[in-house]
Amino acid sequence: MPKTAEDGSADTTAADTTAAGTTTTDAPKPATAEEQLIREGDIAGDYLERLLDLLDYDGDIDLDVEAGRAIVSIDGGEDLEKLVGDRGAVLESLQELTRLAVQQASGNRSRLMLDIAQWRQGRRDELTELGKRTAKDVLDSGQPVKLRPMTPFERKVVHDAVSKIKGVNSESEGEEPRRQVVVFRSGG
After folding, report:
1. pLDDT tens-digit series, residues 101-146
2. What is the distance between the alpha carbons of residues 93 and 83, in angstroms, rounded to a whole number?
3. Is the link from the previous residue into 149 a cis peptide, with omega within 30 of 0?
4. What global pTM score does this model have?
């Protein structure tokens, strides 16, 4: 006859009853936010490694966690510029596909950031300069300036740069994919 929990000798690895009558479980503890982001990066890295193999492209994949996001970078291959595309269009698409792969594997929506051949870092530097220059032009002229339509990543970089200049503000207006940043003098 099998032993039961009542006689104290049953196998109770799934749940144990304490002397106080409460139940404890050996279920794994939920992952911390950092652990979840590391897992997202690992899933994304595996997905992108398979993609590079299919394309027969060389590249080193680097995983990091920064500002509450998994950051995945691919560097080092000769053909990687093809994966960036005109103004980062292919990169944006690959980022979305990678996010979907992570969501499918983990069940969680991902905000991971993908960079290929350091394109985003170079673009970030260009956009930071554009934001600063535009803010100074608005301060000098007093006239608001609308920038060309940008991706969410690009708009955020410009907003961050403008926010560091006193006397000006910025906001996004319009609908995707034609959403653009407007820089204007602050009131008061």
Report:
1. 999 999 999 999 999 999 999 999 999 999 999 999 999 999 999 9
2. 9
3. no
4. 0.73
